[in-house]
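For the sake of transparency, this paper describes our internal protein records without simplification. The tokens are whole numbers drawn from a learned vocabulary of local backbone shapes. One such record is reproduced below, unchanged from the form in which we store it.

. . .
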Amino acid sequence: MFQALSDANRRRMIDQLTLGPASVSELARPLGISLPAVVQHLHVLEASGLVESQKIGRVRTCSVRPQAMSEAERWISARRVAWEQSLDRLGVYLESTAENPKSRSKP
């Protein structure tokens, strides 16, 4: 999922799709890239589970899968909590060594 979001064009497509479903040609218009390139990007987004599409007649309409975005948000939140806890412990340690200079090792 995060690899799919690593490309700027795919992120722009996701941004556009958060406003509502769009056809492949509507997604291509603001990007300034070819339709085959947009289709390749869409394949990556669909494989990651971020986007789904349906073909009605000759028009393929794409939309964001909100549940996939929620999964990514949960993963990021869990990482944020772990990093904040580590930084809190580092802060406590640094405060304790600043108050007690003898506890610091000499270079």
Observations:
- The chain has a mean pLDDT of 89.
- The domain at 4-64 is CATH 1.10.10.10 (Arc Repressor Mutant, subunit A).
- Residues 66-99 form the longest helix (34 residues).
- The radius of gyration is 22 Å.
